[in-house]
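[job 0417] fold request received: 5-methyltetrahydropteroyltriglutamate--homocysteine methyltransferase
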Amino acid sequence: MICKTLVTGFPRIGENRELKRALEHYWSKTASLQELRATAAELRKRHWLFQKRQNIDFISSNDFSYYDNMLDTIVMLNAVPDRFSGIEDETERYFAMARGTAGASAMTMSKWFDTNYHYIVPELSGTLDFRLCPGKILTEYAEAKKLGVKTKINVIGPITFMGLSRASKGENPFGYASRIIPLYKELLARCAELDDTLYIQMEEPYLVKNPTAEVLALLKAAYQDLASVSSNIRIIVTSYFEHSNETTKILAETPIWGLGLDFVHGPQNIQGLKYAKGKKIFAGVVDGRNIWRNDLGASLFLLEKISDMVGREQVVVSTSCSLLHVPYSLQNEPESDIKQHLAFCCEKVEELALLGRVFRGEVVLDSDNIGMKTARSRTPSTQHDGPADIAFGERKVRAGDFAERNALQRRKFHLPKLPTTTIGSFPQTQELRRLRRDFKKRAISEEAYEQGIKTYIDDCIAFQEEIGLDVLVHGEPERNDMVEYFGEMLKGFHFTDNGWVQSYGSRCVKPPIIYGDISRTKPMTVRWISYAQRRSKKPVKGMLTGPVTILNWSFVREDIPRPLVARQIAAALCEEVADLQAAGISIIQVDEAAFREGYPLRKENVSAYERWAVDSFRLAVSSAAKETQIHTHMCYSDFTDIIKTIEAMDADVITIETARGGNRLLDVFEREGYHNEIGPGVYDIHSPRIPSEDEFEKQIFSRLEVLDGKRMWINPDCGLKTRRWEEVRPALQHMVSATRNVRLTLERNETSLT
Ligand SMILES: Nc1nc2c(c(=O)[nH]1)N[C@@H](CNc1ccc(C(=O)N[C@@H](CCC(=O)N[C@@H](CCC(=O)N[C@@H](CCC(=O)O)C(=O)O)C(=O)O)C(=O)O)cc1)CN2
Ligand code: MET
Ligand SMILES: [Zn+2]
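[job 0417] inference complete; emitting structure tokens
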């Protein structure tokens, strides 16, 4: 048999987010574990059989996960942190690690490379009881085999596992190689018993991140070892999201069977192929990160080039990465001009199958091939100039430097020391979701909808007044999501009905699709913010999502430069800032939650990104007067290597996430002389826990050890939309009263000094 095609991985959330619903029912105890398991098995079956029907040769098992594949790998290695080891029940322990319990805080989540998918960060320490637990892998293989599908087994490779881990203080995570590699060897030995020939896909995306000499040496030794475990085992080492040329050369010298390479996001991979003779090449040419139809002609051309270098019989056509990052299928999307240009997961599998057949000469490509077009004309708009008044390349920044702006703003707002605020969203309740859904379906009138939103805002403002927060928010009740909402309002965006992509655990997002020039036809947020502002004498923050974040959390046309798209979004936001200001809104927050994840994976591309990302942010806020206070928010805490860039954004106030990590990463702001104001999070909103007043005081005093209290704000880590009112009410109340106590203590100390 000639093997033609491989799918790196398949999304597991389900066509109608069945897994999301099953998980949430299980967690809220409205469904049993049996029911959850049955849904999961049904989804795996459906997904395997779909790929089989499409004649895909290499279909994955172990790409399924109840929560996250890194967490599954933690379980596979029994790298269970001590605080969970007392939980006897396996399932309970698994979800406790992901979500925390009353007694043990959840493990940290972090972004999977430059995607909006979050993985659970392994915690390596000397006390771990490493041992192989291959149960999930072996049973899923058997389950597929029973259904007539002989799978290749997906495993996150040891280098990537260690590279993404956090080791105990002062330790190097790669120092754990001598404990971890033997377990991978044992795994391969166990797998070798399953069948005559077994294919293992070792996912090693860590290799694209400028590997150090240490990583290269470790990689070589590891795969030399692993590929020698059994002659039944064929190892494919797969990287994605960039090129991995440094390691192609090294891996080619080990006895692995094949290399999976991403030719969409790492076209330079072609250069490494000269070292890859004798290896199977799984050529990622169908984009797993974007939703546009494949340009089949261009892909075939690329496949020919690859064949020229390694020999035609060595080439297998593949997806560029797992299809986890794209929505399930176009089938349930309504007809539109855009639809014909799109390919979601299922359509991508079809494209892959067709490419495989054409590449092997079984069919010729013509316009009839399952209706696909070779040339994509997806240009409803061909003008890429952006709004007329801002020339591309021109740098537009707001007036006044920080010192001048800050003096004016202090005079204007008279905020107390350590001003308190929140990040924007308040709980997204069932009723609120139902209200939006019913309005969308036209099941309720516009008046009824607006009344619902007004009531929410009224309550939200009243609550904030009552507990005494200093800078208020409207609570974002009208927004389904901080990116989708703006996508729906802006020109140049298309949004889907059911284009869900997993973000973490059971949480999904519906990224909008950018297909043309972006512009704003009307104010997007002024009405509800003004409504809220009329209800309070305190400042209510205008709330916008920043240009880089809107860009990163959307699907963008690949034939327009990303900096240009960011600039167009920024120009639209700049108009919104001007309108908010004209409506009397004096504090405006522009969230850049995805600023960090947008960083290129390769060092050599970082400075170009930083330049246009900062310029876009500054353009977006360039219409702000000196007295208007611009906030930004980012939901992470490690600014060590990007502090100068954060400084260059020049927001008057930045609120960040620090409640879990504490002061550990904060001193960089003082050390590097960051002068603008900072709100280090003191409330971990990812946990249902309600911190006491006392805990808040401790958190605040601890922040004061590393940050200057004169320019410090007190706020939660992030928005409160995933929390419940029953948690938010007491928690914020404690946060505010703790801040008051700290203020009094500080004042007392000051007077006693004078
Ligand atoms: N785009 C984006 N990325 C982000 C974040 C973010 O806020 N947005 N935050 C960070 C963490 N990631 C997150 C991602 C998703 C969610 C989240 O809460 N998602 C919701 C969906 C949000 C949404 O769009 N909801 C819609 C409708 C969704 C829906 O399921 N409706 C029901 C009907 C309503 C009902 O009766 O409940 C249905 O279709 O069945 C709305 O509220 O209007 C979920 O999965 O549950 C939270 C954080 C990083 N990345
Ligand atoms: C993921 S960052 C969230 C920021 C947004 N303003 C919110 O509060 O939800
Ligand atoms: Zn956030």
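[job 0417] notes: Residues 370-386 have pLDDT under 50 and may be disordered. The longest strand covers residues 513-520.
[job 0417] exit 0
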